[in-house]
Amino acid sequence: MNPSAELAAVAGALLTLVVAAAWIPGVVRVFVIAQAAFWSLSYIARPLVLLAVRPQPHYGDNVPDPRLAELGYDRGIDLVLDHVVFGLWVYAALVVAYAAWARGRPPAAPALAGDPDLIPTLVTMYALGLIGRAAAVATGAVGSAGDVTSANPILSFVSILATVAALGLIVFARPARPEIAVLVVGVLLAGELAWTAVVESKTPIMGAAMAVAIRFALSGWTRVKAFGVAGIGVLGIGGFGWLQSFKTTELAKAEAALIDSDYPPGVRPFLSILRRFDLLEAATDAYFHGPGYWLTPGEVLNNAVLSLVPAQLLGTQKFQSGTAWAQDVRGASVDMSKVSVSLAEGNLNEGYVLGGYTGVLVCALFTFALLLAWAWALSSRLFPVVVLGLAVTGSSALFERGILGSMENLGKFLQAAVLAWLIHAVVTEVRRRTRQAPPRVVSPVVA
C-alpha cells in the first residue's frame, strides 16, 4: 500500500466519523466532529505537507521527523500510519453503530441548567481561578506545554477552577439580553486565548471552542454557528502564535523566520498550527518501538487506578505516562537522555505499544466509552459530575491521550470536582440565608 492509499484510508475513516456524527443528536456530535478535525491535522495535514515539501530535519523544527526522512517520507509515512488506519476504522465503526442506535432518540437535556445557584457558583469558581492564575504569573510558577512537573502544584490546581468555570459559563449562562450573552462569551473566550498563550498550550482555547459548540448544540445549530465555532478554533490556535510573539526575543523571531523560509509561502501560515498537532510523531515513536516491552497489562491497570488517588495520600510520586513515553518509547529511537519532557502519546499509538493491534482495539474502545461518559456527565443532576464533564471538555483526553494519560487527567479533575462541590455548597447556603433573612426595620427616632 503506497502512502496515498494510507492517507486515503485515514481520510475515509475520518470522513465516516463526520457523516455518522451528523446523525447523532446532542453534544456527542460536537466531540466526534472535533476528534475528526483534530486527527485530520495530525494524520492528514502534516503528512501531506511532508510529502509535498520534503523538508530536511534540523533543530527548532518539529514538522520534519528525522526518522521519517531517513526512511524516505513515502515509505516512512506508509509504515507509521498502518496501526493508525486500523484504529481509526475501529473507532469509526463504533461511532456508526452508536449513530444507528441514537438516531431518533431525544438528546439528554442538561439537568442543572435551571439551578438558580449554578451560575453564582461558576462565577465564584472563575474568580478564585483567576486569582490562582494571577498568582502563578506573578510568582513565575506558570507551567508550559511539555513540562514534567508544575512549579507550584497548589496554584496549578486552583487555576483549573478558572478553566472549568469559564467553560461552564459559556455553556450554561443565558443572560436575558442577547448582546450581554455575546459579551460574556466573548470575554471568556478572550481570557482562555490569553491563558493559552501564557501556558504555551493549545488546550485552553480548544476547550473554549468546544464549549461554544456545546452551547450551540443545546440551543440549535445553524450554518453560521458551525462556521463560527470552526473559526474560533482556527483563529485561536493561529492567534496563539501571534500572542507568543510578544514575549519572544528578536533573535528567536529571526531564527523562526529562517526555519519557516524553507517552506513554500502557501504553507507558512499553517506551520504554527501543524507544530501543535504532533500525533504523527507519536505514531512514529510507536512504530520504531514496536508492541510490548514497555508496560504489562497489570502495570497499566495499577498505574491507571493509582492516578485517581491524590499524590498526598499515596506518599509517593505517581506514574506519568507522558514522561515515560518520552523516555522509554521515543527514547527507543531518539536520544532523549538530555531532554526531560512530557509528550502526548495518542490513544491508538499507546495501544499499539502496549499490545499491538489488540491494544489499539482496547484503546479505541476506551476513548469511545470516555466520550459517552463525558456526554452523560454534562446532563447529570449532580454538580460534581457536571464539573467532571466540563473538565473533560477543557482537556485533551479525548483527542491526544491514551488510557494512562486520560486517567491522570481524571485524577486531577476528581480533586477539582470535590473543591467545586464545596464551593457550590457554600454558595448555595449563603444564597439560601440571604433569601430567608428578614428585612431590616428601621425604628423611628423619638425626639
Class by SSE composition: mainly alpha
What value does the average pLDDT take? 86
By DSSP, the count of extended strands is 0
Q: Indicate the low-confidence ranges by residue numbers.
A: none
Provide the β-strand percentage band. Answer: under 5%
Beginning-to-end CA distance, first to last residue: 101 Å
Please give the largest β-sheet: none
- Rg, rounded, reads 23 Å
Basic shape: globular
Q: Which tags fit this structure?
A:
single chain, 447 residues, mainly alpha, 20 helices, transmembrane, membrane, transmembrane helix
Provide an overview of this structure.
By secondary structure, this protein is mainly α. Among the domains are: 111-246, no CATH class; 288-432, no CATH class. 70% of the residues lie in helices and 0% in strands. It contains 20 helices and no strands. The protein has helices at residues 3-21, 28-53, 66-71, 73-80, 82-102, 118-139, 153-172, 178-199, 203-219, 223-245, 250-260, 271-274, 279-289, 297-306, 311-314, 321-329, 347-378, 383-393, 397-400, 403-436. The longest helix is centred in the last third of the chain and has 34 residues, at 403-436. The protein is globular, with a radius of gyration of 23 Å. The model has no long low-confidence stretch (mean pLDDT 86). It comes from Nocardia xishanensis. Keywords: Membrane, Transmembrane, Transmembrane helix. The chain crosses the membrane at residues 79-101, 121-142, 154-174, 180-199, 220-243, 352-375, 382-399. This is Oligosaccharide repeat unit polymerase.
